[in-house]
Amino acid sequence: MARREIKRAPVPVFLSPLSLLEIRNALNMAIARGEIGETERDAVMADIERQIAAGFFRAVQVSQAAIYAKACELSDSHTPAILARSLDLMHVAAALLCKARLFLSTDTRQCKVARAEGLAVKPSMGTKE
User: Which residues contact residue 37 at a Cβ distance below 8 angstroms, ignoring those fewer than 6 apart?
Assistant: First the structure.
């Protein structure tokens, strides 16, 4: 589902350092579960680097201090009602600071915060808590 939405997204798709860490960590968790090997992880990361070089993805640099400050604002605004997690808030904060218009996620609470902040969200409904 995520791959389909990424292919449909307007180019470039922004990737923050936090997004790149999340991708790498998800791949490393798949290694731990025996679903893939290090060779597959390295191939995916190399493919992402190629797509950054080709302009499909754009690696964006956002000040960590700015992300934390914005995430704190989002926490005050949304966590009492949505129960958003810190990392979810940081992803939304990075997207807002990059002036993204579309937010790609399958996490229900993350999607709720992104929508509340005026971002279009794909897929249309987050499914993972």
Answer: 31
